[in-house]
Write a sequence for this structure.
């Protein structure tokens, strides 16, 4: 998969007012993307689990830049009182935020939203289940639901589906040999590229989704290294 766009975000330990991003795609974000392509509902843990058992790897073709948005919620809007029979009425010019229970809070919230700009990654999955890999590949070609890069407004600039994305080799070889063409560039990079490969041991990261609906994640282990591509 080619994960490339002007804005993308891969949250990890993020909270409502402080949305951070890692420097490369998380497994939860990529599995979520595959679920959208296939059409797996966030409550469907049965069909989610086989995807989480695949081994994931990332090649950083272009790391991009870390940027931040300051978003103010509840500042400057006009609150109309709501009556379920008569609709909106009694225009009161007040700042407001709608709470989840449909009550109104008048306290403005400033949210910090971190994102990567102009980053490009090649992401691969390895599995002994060839039919599962083929299903993922075909679904990316004709996704059931909208595909985005971490947030719904962060759309990819290049197609995520790669026609030659299915490779009869191990994950490391596939990432090492796949063509280098971030944002259409064809010139070979001058130095080594960064790889993040899931393995049985290494640095732990808690981003393997067990349930999107209940926000349950398990640890996996990754190795990070630099290597020149072939």
């Amino acid at each position: 998969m080619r994960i490339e766009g002007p804005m993308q975000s891969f949250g990890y330990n993020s909270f409502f007012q402080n949305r951070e991003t890692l420097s490369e795609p998380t497994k939860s974000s990529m599995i979520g993307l595959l679920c959208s392509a296939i059409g797996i509902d966030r409550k469907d843990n049965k069909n989610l689990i086989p995807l989480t058992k695949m081994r994931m790897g990332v090649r950083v073709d272009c790391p991009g830049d870390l940027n931040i948005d300051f978003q103010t919620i509840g500042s400057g809007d006009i609150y109309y009182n709501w009556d379920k029979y008569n609709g909106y009425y009694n225009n009161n010019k007040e700042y407001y935020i709608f709470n989840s229970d449909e009550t109104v809070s008048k306290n403005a919230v400033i949210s910090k939203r971190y994102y990567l700009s102009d980053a490009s990654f090649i992401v691969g999955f390895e599995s002994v289940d060839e039919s599962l890999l083929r299903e993922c590949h075909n679904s990316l070609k004709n996704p059931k639901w909208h595909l985005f890069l971490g947030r719904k407004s962060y759309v990819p600039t290049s197609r995520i589906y790669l026609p030659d994305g299915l490779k009869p080799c191990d994950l490391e070889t596939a990432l090492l040999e796949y063509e280098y063409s971030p944002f259409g560039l064809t010139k070979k990079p001058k130095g080594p590229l960064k790889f993040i490969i899931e393995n049985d041991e290494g640095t732990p990261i808690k981003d393997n989704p067990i349930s999107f609906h209940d926000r349950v994640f398990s640890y996996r282990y990754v190795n990070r290294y630099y290597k020149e591509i072939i």
In short: The longest strand covers residues 216-227. The two ends are 18 Å apart (CA to CA). The mean pLDDT is 86. The CA atoms of residues 107 and 187 lie 52 Å apart.
